[in-house]
Structures are given as C-alpha cells and as structure tokens.
Amino acid sequence: MIKNYIVNNAHRYASKWVVLGIDVFIISVSFVLSYLIRFNLTLNFDTDRLLYQLPVVALIGTLSFLVTGSYKGVVRHTGVRDVYNIFNAICVSSIFTIFFVILNRQLGILSDFTIPLSIIIIHSLIAFIALTASRYVFKSLYHSLVRKFNVYKNVLIYGAGEAGILTYNTLSSHSASDARVIGYIDDDSKKSGKNINGIRVYAARELSKEFIDRFSIDEIIVSINNIEQHKLREIVESLVDFQVQVKIVPPVEDWINGELKLSQIKQVQIEDLLNRTPISIRKSRVSSELKDQVIMVTGGAGSIGSEIVRQIANYDYKALIIIDQAESPLYDLQQELKQKGFHNFVPIVADIRDKNRMNSFFQEHQPTIVFHAAAYKHVPLMEYNSYEAIKINVAGTKVLADLSLLHKVDKFVFVSTDKAVNPTNVMGATKRIAEMYISCMQQEHKTKFITTRFGNVLGSNGSVIPLFRRQIESGGPLTVTHKDITRYFMTIPEASQLVLEAAAMGKGGEIFIFDMGESVRIFDLAKNMIKLSGLRYPEDIDIKITGLRPGEKLYEELLANGENTLPTYHKKIMISKVRELDYAGVRSLINELCISNMFFNADTVKLMKEIVPEYVSNNSEFCKLDTPAQGEALREKGPEESLAKPDRATIYESYIRANVESKTKE
C-alpha cells in the first residue's frame, strides 16, 4: 500500500517548478561555496559584495534553466541525457554571467558590480557537480522508498556485453521491476571476476546447481546481441535443468525507439529452441507480383490463411477477397485488419464446396491470383471422417481449380502438406489427390497452377505445441504418441512467406518444398517445454505415451534431398520431382471419386488407393484395403520399421508388378 501511494503520488513531489526552485537554490549555494574555496575556506572577502551579486547569479541561472529546459526531466529516470542538459544549462549560465559582467563594466548598469573570472569557473564546476549529484540522490531515494516494500526475485544476466548492460539498466531503473541482478554470466574468460556497474561477472563454467542454490537464483535472462540460433539453443538447454525461469531479450532491431522496455523481456518459448534458420524472401519480387492484383484467399481465417492475408495486406494490391466458413475467426481477422488501418478487403463467409456461390464471387470480383489454403488437416479425425476429407480437400480444390480456369485466373497457389508424400492416412492421401488434380489442370496451359508443401507449422490450430501448453496449464500429463516420433517444424510467418515466394517465382506446374532443417524429437520437445515452464519432469509433470494414432507416421519423409528435388534461386526452396501421371486417367478417377463420395460410397478410400498407389495405411482400419503385395512389403520391413520408414519405392514396384501379373493371368 505504501509502495502504491509513493508511485501514484510521486508526480506531486516531482513538479518541474519544484525542480526548478531546487536547482536555483543549489546554484546559489554553489556560488557561496565558490567564494569560500577561492579564499581558502575563510571569510577574507567582502560578504556584502557576495550578497549583492547572489540575486543576479540566481536570476541568470533561472534564465539558463528556462532556456535549456533542464528542470523538465523526470528526476527518478535521470540519465545521461539529463546530465547533458544540466551541462548545457551551466555553460549558458556562465556565458550569460561573463557577458553581463562585461556589459556592466561598459554601461554601468549596476554600480560596483564585478565577479572575478576564477569565481565564475569555480562556481560552474561546483554547480554542475551539485546539480548532477542532487538528481541521482533524489533518484536513489525514490527507488529506495519504492523498493523497500518489494519482494525481489534474484536474477542472473547471461551476457556481459552491451546488450547485457542495457538489460541491467532497464531492470534497475524501472520502478515496476521486482528483479535484483545478482551477477552476469559470460563465456569470455577476460571478463570473468570483473565488475560492471558494481555487479560481478561470473564465468559460464561456474554456473551449477550449487551456484543457483547459493544465490537463490529465480531467473536467468539471456541477453546477447546477434546470437546464432544454435548457440541460443545450446545455452537455453544448458539452463533449463536448473529449475529457474529462462527469459530472453529480443534483438536490438526489435527494441521500441531503440530502447529496451521491461515488457519486451519474454520467457523463452520452445519455438526459440528449434534449430531453424528463418527464411528470407525477395520482398521486391513479391511486391511486383502482387501489385494491382485482385487476390482471393480461401481458408483466410485459418492459421496459415490468416497469416497470408496479414502479409499480403502490406503490399500494394488492388483488392483482397478473404473467404472462410468459420464466422468467428473471420470476424476477428476483419477487426484486426481494420484496427491496423487496412480497409481494401472483403471478408466473405462461404463454403468453397458450393460451386454456384463460389462462381458468383469469381464473376463479381474477377480475382487474378488465388491462394487456396482451405482444408481439413487433422490426421486422426479425417481417418474416421473420410467423406468430409474428400469433400473439402479434393472436391473443394477441384471446384476452385475449375473456376480459376473458367475465369482465366493468372495464378492458382495451392497450400499442401508433406503428409501428401507417400501418404499413410486419409488426410495425406486427399491432399496428394488434390495435388494431382492441380497437375492435371496445369496441362490446359491457361492458369499457372503452383503447389507449396511444408511440414508442421508452429502455433497452428491443433499443432502439438499449443496442445502441450494447455496440458501444462492444466497440470499435465503431456501426451506423446510414441517416444521416438519426430517431426519437422516451421513458423507460421515462414510458411506464409513460402507461399508468397512460390506465387512470385512459380511459372506453373511446380511443387515447391522447403528445406525444413533438422527434425525434432517430440518427446524431447515435451521435456523442454516442461522445463521452460519452471517445472520438473517427471516430478511436477509427467509425459504419457499414448501410442500412434490412426494413420500417423513415426517419421516424416525427408523431402529435401538431391535425389527427388531440383534447386531454385533460393537455397531453402526446392522443386519436387514427382512421377509422371496419366493425366486423362487420373482426372477421370478423381471425378469418379468426387461423385462416389457424394453418394456416400463405401469404396471411396479403396478408390483413393487406386489413384495414389503409394498410399499405404498405417495403424488404421483401412490397412485391410492395401494389396497383398503392399502388405508383404511392409511385413518384410518388420512392424517397427514399417511404421517408421517404409521403402515406398519397393512397395510401389511390388504393387505394379502384382497388378501386371494379375492382368496377365486374366
């Protein structure tokens, strides 16, 4: 209560006029002291002359403060800039005094008024020191009163460089901060044992559980400029075992007006630890591609679609059409865009499977570029809802592709998934079939059809990281389907940038894939998330192995290798080489699939396996639909390996061979 009273009422005692009055008093006292020092701390000078000169000096000092505005600074936040203003005020005051003395000698404004130059110089030095010291005394008193009632948390700053020192200044100068910096940690042995701002620098090798316990450390803040991703990962992973909160300071370019704010020091997120080098795109190329275009984004309220919309909104497009059947997320996106000042967009609640309604939108808005991100994507759910998966992922894509051809859309960019590669589930198979239909449409050579593939997206709806966060908040346990399961990850902005880059570089017919970096073991991801939350595994929160879900792979296929990709001008983006298709036959089968699905035909999944021969189900009721040749190939690999990395080429060859033999016998 006392603390709040002081904070809330501090402005009453820090009025600029009060500060001005104190400053004038200080320079007056300093003038008296300058006489005492000049005459060796004795009174061997004319005191009447001193009293005669004092009001003039005080008046000149007041004018100087008013001119420079040095009294307007907030005393409790005094910094280098305020000291600089005080220095300017003293210089102006000295110049005014000297000028007045010279002028008085010539004009005789005040009789018998003169101040020795030595007195003026001594007065300037004393006044500057006294004014600066007074600021810091009041600042210290204020913080002492406020912090006297604080409950501190002991903090270590990892990094004794410029960023670390600025972080210390931010923590120590902010009245709302409850952090007490115990020391710096640095890898540079030359800094070890030295003090910075009175705070000791410790070597990184000294950091141990005993060290943490001895100083009762609650929090470690990593503050290193331009730190490489793998280095940050190593540092944080070495800290999470100490049962402390680990926070990170953002890069300097992200600081607000070049200053670090307390609110910017955030807890390390698991996304920061993934060994990912962010993708950079040629914004000028994307900008020229989108300039004056009418752009349609389907699934525009979803995690990927909404980020595509946000990024497109920054370019000079003609119109932006956002389509989604989810009303509430679309409304939220609409309000967000309006709040940011974007108005040239049209949000539409619609189902992409409604061909007549979609046709009316194409007629009304005449889009030139279509980004198709609408899809069902949850593997286990779609395994039990194949009707919906086919209806939206295949039939919905077919509707949009057909309309794009009909209305002469320039480019159609399809957002696919790496689960379309050698699919083991209904969702992946439907996305692969959609890719195949896109390839068929490309043969018309009217609209440029482009496909982008990427893996798991951090923070997207239904992804593993938000799930783990919710489970941690509810007290656990965290659920992992298999101890050895791994996945590739990228961020939502990266995925969206890839889509925009594909639109810019694509000439039609390409399937663009992204070098996803190293795969991440989900079990390790779960453990790190527990530790980053300041909890202990398994004492506080355990991890439960639930078993692979229907259609789920143990390992995702590695797409970026020299055997099945072609390079582009961007080293992180490649073009997938896919097998040649019988376009007429495939198109006919896809049409048959969509019609069969409309009548709830039970053989739709079997037909999907005919369209996509490499589609071999995993841990699913649809395993029974796989041919004997496919099943035999999987059994030869062994149950665990078959779940992990089945040899799809062998399976496909066996499947073709079995079909040929069957037809020969017939």
CATH superfamily of the largest domain: NAD(P)-binding Rossmann-like Domain
Largest sheet: 9 strands, mixed
Compute the number of strand runs.
Answer: 22
- Supply the number of helical segments: 23
For the terminal residues, how far apart are their CA atoms?
92 Å
**Beta-sheet strand percentage?**
5-15%
What is the level 1 CATH name of the largest domain?
A: Alpha Beta
Spans of at least 5 consecutive residues whose pLDDT stays below 50 are 5-14, 558-563, 633-666
In the CATH hierarchy, the third-tier topology of the largest domain is known as Rossmann fold
CATH architecture of the largest domain: 3-Layer(aba) Sandwich
Shape: elongated
Kindly report the spatial arrangement of strands forming the biggest sheet.
Answer: 10-9-8-11-12-13-18-22-21
Radius of gyration: 35 Å
Helix proportion range:
40-55%
Question: How would you concisely characterize the structure shown here?
Answer:
The chain contains 23 helices and 22 strands. It has 666 residues and is α/β, with parallel strands linked by helices.
